[in-house]
Design a protein that fits this description.
The chain folds into 4 domains: 42 residues; 109 residues, no CATH class; 116 residues, Sandwich (Jelly Rolls); 114 residues, Jelly Rolls. By secondary structure, the protein is mainly β. The protein starts with a helix and ends with a helix. The strands form 6 sheets. Strands 12-11-10-14-8-7-15-9-13 form a 9-stranded antiparallel sheet, with no helix packed on it.
């Protein structure tokens, strides 16, 4: 019986503690939240003060109305593009007066605003003029505009075969290409409806003046501590065009945290102007902070004229329903608190008229007392545990010795 009791105490001592629960005395920091429009969905923007004192994943953010929690959802303002391309059938492909012309059957595609052509052609600039109709051979057609298509394989400046249209629902589209693309080079087409949402960004650091080191341009940057870095945007003088440069991003430990290319194309051939620009590089390791080194590989080309470099983080927002309240409090700074599980987040719907709430200055929580020691009983009372284990060993030894002394 005594041995069973000791074993029970040992199991109880090693039992895992329950998951931490939120409580106002456990948060190190607090800020007032002022609500100007309490009758609608509101949001507040996570700033550097919150990043510096909250958990890196922001799981310990809690909104309170007095002693009651206010449910919220944490949202990244990434923006982005969503579309689903569908194959379309190319009809009546041929040549008229040196121009390749063809129709595209949209079939069951209800609405669209993009057509991507598959062209088996290199090193060209061409114009695609598009018109819409609901019946083949119909004379009354609607002009939908034109787009410039190009391929600069020789110059290593990329290509474009996307035709942009106003939102349309015509059953058929008629294409007419400028001379240079033969009918047999048109291999197919896909159609899509693009939904684009602009991202929101905040600056999270600064960079020094670029230095030229051999074939490379080197820039040193300082990133705010604890604030995630998502992308680097280069500002290049508008006079510089037709370039492509590889970019490498390395942290203070010499580890590569991002890489990519920046480019700008502006080429006029036979009266046709092709333009494109991409001056942003994604950062793969978002936890990169402190000092970063950006290196642009110029090859044998002259260095770019950089007028600035921006270090950007995606804006994080906390959306919530104030339910008529004009003031709440935001608490944070509890390292052991797990993320909340709210129904509000599961059924969240973004209100386009959501109003920005104002955050007061960050302050230490006067009610802070810290969490009680949540370590297992065995970690907090190792001496007692060892004594119990020795007592158990001694009891087992005594039982064994007594058994040996008994006559057979």
């Amino acid at each position: 019986m005594k041995c069973n009791s000791i074993a029970f105490l040992l199991l109880a001592a090693l039992a895992a503690p329950a998951a931490p629960e939120p409580a106002i005395p456990y948060f190190t920091n607090v800020r007032d939240v002022q609500i100007a429009q309490p009758d609608r969905q509101n949001y507040l923007v996570v700033d550097e003060e919150i990043w510096n004192h909250a958990r890196p994943d922001l799981a310990d953010l809690r909104l309170y109305d007095g002693e009651a929690q206010v449910q919220y959802v944490l949202s990244e303002q990434n923006g982005g593009v969503s579309s689903e391309e569908q194959e379309a059938k190319v009809l009546n492909l041929g040549s008229i007066a040196g121009h390749s012309e063809f129709d595209i059957d949209m079939g069951g595609i209800a609405d669209y605003d993009r057509v991507r052509l598959r062209l088996d052609a290199k090193d060209f600039v061409a114009t695609a003029s598009v018109a819409g109709t609901n019946a083949l051979g119909q004379k009354a057609i609607t002009q939908l505009g034109s787009s410039t298509l190009y391929d600069f394989t020789h110059e290593a400046l990329g290509s474009n075969s996307m035709v942009k249209l106003p939102p349309s629902s015509f059953r058929y589209l008629h294409f007419r290409l400028s001379p240079g693309i033969r009918p047999q080079q048109v291999k197919g087409a896909t159609v899509s409806n693009l939904h684009e949402q602009q991202a929101s960004w905040i600056n999270v650091g600064s960079c020094t003046v670029p230095e030229q080191k051999g074939r490379s341009t080197v820039i040193t940057c300082e990133v705010h501590q604890k604030v995630p870095l998502d992308r680097v945007v280069f500002q290049v003088a508008s006079s510089q065009v037709n370039f492509r440069r590889g970019v490498s991003i390395v942290d203070a430990k010499g580890l590569q945290t991002g890489s990519g290319e920046i480019s700008r194309v502006r080429i006029n051939r036979a009266g046709l102007l092709a333009t494109s620009e991409d001056l942003a590089v994604r950062v793969l390791d978002k936890s990169s902070s402190g000092r970063l080194t950006l290196t642009l590989d110029n090859g044998d080309n002259p260095p770019l004229i950089l007028t600035g470099v921006q270090l950007l983080s995606v804006e994080r927002r906390v959306y919530f329903d104030p339910q008529g309240k004009t003031a709440l409090k935001l608490y944070y700074g509890d390292e052991k608190l797990p993320p909340p599980i709210y129904d509000y987040a599961k059924f969240f719907h973004l209100d386009e008229s959501a109003a920005p709430a104002q955050l007061g200055r960050g302050a230490h929580n006067d009610a802070y007392s810290g969490r009680p020691d949540a370590r297992p009983w065995s970690d907090r009372h190792q001496g007692v545990l060892w004594a119990a284990m020795l007592l158990a060993v001694a009891a087992l030894a005594a039982v064994a010795i007594r058994g040996l002394k008994q006559p057979t």
